[in-house]
Amino acid sequence: MIAVLADDLSGAAELAGAALLHGLRAEVQTRFTADTDADLVCIDTDTRLRPPAEAAAIVAQVGRDVVAARPEWVFKKCDSVLRGAVLAESRALARAIGAQAITLLSANPSRGRVIQGGRYRVEGVPLHETIFRDDPAHPRLTDLVADLLGGDLTGVAAPDAITSEDVARQAQAVGAHTLPAGGVDFFAAVLAARRVGTAPVVPAVAFVPAERAILAVCGSAVGWPLRQAAASGWREAVFALPHDVAAARRALRTRRRALIGIGDGPATRGRTPAELAAALGAAVAEILRDVPVDRMLLEGGATAIAVIRALGWTRLRASALAAAGVGVLRPVDGRGPELLVKPGSYPWPTGLWPA
Q1: Does 113 share its domain with 240?
Q2: How far apart are CA 218 and CA 222, in angstroms?
Q3: Do 180 and 259 reside in the same domain of the chain?
Q4: Which percentage of the chain shows pLDDT scores above 90?
Q5: Rounded to 5 degrees, what angle do the CA atoms 230, 133, 279 make?
Q6: In 31-102, which residue ranges form alpha helices assigned H by DSSP?
Q7: Could you tell me if 187 and 121 lie in one domain?
Q8: d(Cα 187, Cα 304) in Å, to the nearest integer?
Q9: Does residue 199 lie within any of the structural domains?
Q10: What three-state secondary structure class fits 73?
Q11: Residue span of the structural domain in which 98 resides
């Protein structure tokens, strides 16, 4: 078993999809268990919004549990633009597994996110001049990677990566006593460098016919205006806080499509991101108790874990491939909708609803 620790569920789902592409049976867990036939287990520690000391303590405990299961190797997934307690979590995991060094490479050149001269660029734009400057929990106010990590980098290599070849070279250089940490490009490169997996035939995510029900769930402050506009353009029902659950159920029964989110109205004022995500998760669970859906589109890691917790799921299996950045999961018992999960900072690929 290969083990991955991710600080949010969208990241765990993303890496499970990358593993599936390499021919590995991949599972996402919200509580770690070694009782699985999966080749790769991605554990969501749900620590993105926690203070560094608390996040590190959680990761250290999960790391010790993982070590007791004797994994082949361990990877630490972090946010591509280094939001969260990246350095504290990576160091805590390195100590738990006995790693002597860390190679931390969050850049994803395949998606225009590169590091050059220690500075982060998104499609050529300095990070602090992009939408990430206004992130509600982790505003990116600089493009200097060392400052984004915010701590002593002794024992931590945070190399430049401009091309996919740069990422591959860094992956090949990771030694047996080094913890690899970073984004999906680095993870896939480590898999390739270690010759893990095969070239499988994996089903692509299927088009959902109009008569099947789809519920799109958006907790991303960045994504909400775009999803709302797209849904309105399609004349689909849109629900923000305070959620009208009865109306959402009617929309799914009649129109077979609905978008539900946190929104940005008065009902969001004075509430923490965790409280807002929990309210959204509770509303989705209430809707699904009465109206089954065939597919849920979950946008944002905090949104995804809130919904999954509200529905009582702890283990999900990667089941199909979608475009880059989107994980496709199903509960391991086979009951429940297909879940498409992506970070809030990436758009939904063409062909998935909403646009």
Answers
A1: no
A2: 10
A3: no
A4: 74
A5: 55
A6: 52-68, 86-97
A7: yes
A8: 22
A9: no
A10: strand
A11: 2-193
Whether the model clears a pTM of 0.85, i.e. scores above it, the answer is yes
Rounded Cα–Cα distance for residues 9 and 128 (Å): 25
Tokens of 91: 């160091």
Q: Which residues pair with 156 in a beta bridge?
A: 102
Same domain for 295 and 182:
no
> Which of 285, 137, 151, 96 lies closest to 221, judged by CA?
137
What CATH number is attached to the domain comprising 306?
3.40.980.20
Domain presence at residue 35: yes
User: Is residue 126 located within the same domain as residue 251?
Assistant: no
CA distance 355 to 341: 15
Query: Would you list the DSSP string of 203-243?
Result: PBPPPPPTTS-EEEEE--TTTHHHHHHHHHHTT-EEE-SSP
CA distance 260 to 281: 10
pLDDT tens per residue across span 205-237: 777 777 889 999 998 877 888 888 888 777 789
